[in-house]
Amino acid sequence: MNGVKLVDFDVHGNKSGYLIALESLSEQVPFEVKRVYYIFGVNDNAIRGKHAHYQLKQLLICVNGSVDITVEDGKTKELFRLDNPSKGLYIEGFIWREMKNFSQNAVLVVLASEHYSEADYVRDYEKFLKEAKNNG
User: Fold this and answer.
1) Is pLDDT at 136 greater than 80 in this prediction?
2) Distance between CA 32 and CA 107 in Å, rounded?
3) Which residues of 50-63 are buried (b: 16+ CB within 10 A; e: fewer)?
4) Active-site residue flag, 51
5) What is the arithmetic mean of pLDDT over 16-34?
6) Which has fewest Cβ within 10 Å: 9, 84, 87, 133?
7) CA distances from 30 to 7, 91, 92, 97, 112 (A)
8) Residue 135 — very low, low, confident or very high, per pLDDT cuts 50/70/90?
9) How far is CA 19 from CA 14, 32, 39, 61, 129, in A?
10) DSSP 43
C-alpha cells in the first residue's frame, strides 16, 4: 500500500544492552519530528486511532509489548503487528488507522511530522471513504 511501510531500525549494542538512535530527516525517520507522544495502559478490547490525516506523517514504534495496527487507503486494508522495538510503521498520506489488541504492558510511541491540529483529522469513517474514493 502506498504511504505505509515497515521500517527496520539500526540496533547497536552487545550483551550489556542495546540502543536505537532515531534522527529526523533520515532514512528511518524521513521527516522533521515536531511532536512525540505515547499510548499506554489501554483497556482490553479498546480500539485507538480510528482516524486519518490529511498531511501528518507518523512513525509508530511499539517499544514494549505488542499492538496490531490496521491501515486502509479506501481500497485496501493491511494489518501490521508491532511487537519489536527495532521496527516501526511509517504512515503518510490519507490513510485510516486503527490500533487494537494492545498487550497488557504495551507502550506505543508515535513520532509526528506536525504539531497537533484538529483540522488535519478525519474522524468519520464514512467521510474518509468518500474522500478516499474522490481522491483515488
Assistant:
1) no
2) 22
3) ebbbeebbbbbbbe
4) yes
5) 95
6) 133
7) 11, 11, 10, 19, 11
8) confident
9) 9, 21, 21, 14, 40
10) P
Q: What is the mean pLDDT of the chain?
A: 96
E-strand ranges in 15-116 read 17-19, 35-40, 48-53, 58-64, 67-72, 77-82, 87-91, 96-100, 107-112
Q: 37 pLDDT exceeds 80?
A: yes
The dihedral through the CA atoms of 85, 109, 65, 74 has a sign that is negative
Element (H, E) at 8: strand 4-8
Catalytic annotation, pick one of 12, 51, 53, 115: 51
DSSP annotation of 84? -
User: Rounded to 5, what percent of the chain is helix, strand, coil?
Assistant: 10, 45, 45
| Predicted confidence (pLDDT) per residue in 63-87, tens digit | 999 999 999 999 999 999 999 999 9
